[in-house]
Amino acid sequence: MQDLKNKAIRGGSVRLCTQVAMLLMRVGSVAILARLLDPTDFGLANMVTALTGVLGLFRDFGLSAAMVQRATITEEETSALFWVNIAVGVVLTVFTMGCAPLVTAFYSQSHVFWLTIVAATGFIFNAAGVQHSALLQRQMRFTALALIDLCSLIGANLVAILMALAGCGYWALIATTVCLPLFGTIGVWCVARWLPGRPRHCPNLRSLIRFGGTLTLNGLIMYVSANLEKVLIGRVWGAEAIGVYGRACQLNKIPIDGLNSAVGQVAFSALSRLRDDPARFRSYFLKGYSLVLSSNILVTIVCVLFAEDIIRILLGPKWTDAAAILRLLAPTILVYAMQSPLGWLLESLGLVARGLKMALVFAPLVIGAIFAGLPFGPQGVALAYSAMMMLWVVPVVAWAVHGTPISFRDVMTTFAQPFLSGLVAVGLVLVLRLWLGSSLTILPRILLEGTALLGSYGAMLWYVMGQKTFYLSVLRVLGGRSSVTALSSQ
Predict the structure, then answer these.
(1) Most confident of 4-18, 76-90, 144-158
(2) In the Cβ-directed half-sphere of 293, how many Cα atoms lie within 13 Å?
(3) Are the C-beta atoms of residues 359 and 218 closer than 8 Å to each other?
(4) Sign of CA dihedral 186, 192, 195, 201
(5) What are phi and psi of 61, to 5 degrees?
(6) CA–CA gap between residue 10 and residue 39 (Å, rounded)
């Protein structure tokens, strides 16, 4: 058990540090590519990735999660899962290539045909590395996984930037979708040093596929409901509109995707091994949940207060329409922060069927909201989507935790502390902004307001909410200056 603590906290620390680096890398590449390419280039790429993204949910058929969740797994089962993944990758590649004419006709954009053909090859590269990555995750080798992810992202972004500088336009964006899984698979093969056996029948394969298939169907429903608006905006309002909307969505999701991935990967592995120990299970979950909430609430506030500044600084003047969309989508950051960790909870407990039922209820509600907002353009869609997400979050939390070691009161108590701290910080910044008026230029104003926001938010969390000891322990672990037992005992 102590070894699990050590691995989980060290792994979480490394993942968090690496995700900060990856966040800076993603934001930097978005800023550079936004200045080298036009909104239409991004719009054309979004038209393709809308298809490859939804099909990407099938790329491992949930089999990596099935492998990590199992208490024990044999070499024979691992090899069988590898070949299933390869077969799925081949099918997805062929199917996507076959869809290229349909995608072209749907958007009435001839450029989309070859973009779809090339993007389809990414499925093969990804399939070849799924089980190697799962092996590393099962062994809790999070440092290696984090470094592989970082190096893959650096390599893929470097290729995209060089192609954009060379005048390749939208091809630079498609190159990222192919290079990222290619570099990642090369990395996990080199580190895992595992070679699959020959294809053979495996008696337990059906139960693994059943678990993974349920996860995949759940993810498919959630993905469609969360990304359908991009397809419809592209179809109704054109490539430039979806380009602008897509950049706002990307800036909205970069911080939360990175943090949730970092904490979630570690949490799922640890929680899967603690599901028979309710007290420890509850303790681990709520610690991870607290970290996700406190960070994402701060990101939500930043997107609301500084939307115009973020767009102006990162993307440049030709993207000003994205500011309003970024602000309207900001509440979804908070919703995902509350909702995403529930996936760790359900999957680690094997309650994937409940997750599927929740997705089946969620999808029609969100799709209805998207259609309601579509006649009003990208801003109308963003407003309707955010409103429905906020209405959904409390019922889904209550549904997810029912009958688990985590109570609804646990979740609300954990949420209340950073949320109330955020409200106080927002009030202080608004008073400061009103007092300053237009007396400062953009950079001094952002520096002053940002300092006030961080200082007041941190002071509220540490002192008023009594979280100082916990967060100091996190910082000491991240800095390697204390034992992991200090944090695990908080």
Answers:
(1) 144-158
(2) 23
(3) yes
(4) negative
(5) 55, 30
(6) 41
- Considering only residues 77 and 409, tell me which one the structure prediction assigns the higher pLDDT: 409
Q: Tens digits of per-residue pLDDT, 344-368?
A: 788 778 787 888 888 888 888 888 9
Buried-state track 248-278, b at ≥16 Cβ within 10 A, e below 16: bbbbbbbbbbbbbebbbbbbbbbbbbbbeee
pTM (2 d.p.): 0.68
Task: Calculate the alpha carbon distances from 420 to 297, 301, 350, 413, 431 in Å.
Answer: 10, 12, 33, 11, 17
108-151 residue pLDDT tens: 888 889 999 999 898 888 888 888 887 887 777 777 888 898 89
Delimit the domains of the chain by residue range: 37-202
The three-state secondary structure class of 418 is helix
The per-residue DSSP string of 48-59 comes to HHHHHHHHHTTS
**CB of 173 closer than 8 Å to CB of 33:** yes
What is d(CA 318, CA 62) in angstroms, rounded to the nearest whole number?
40
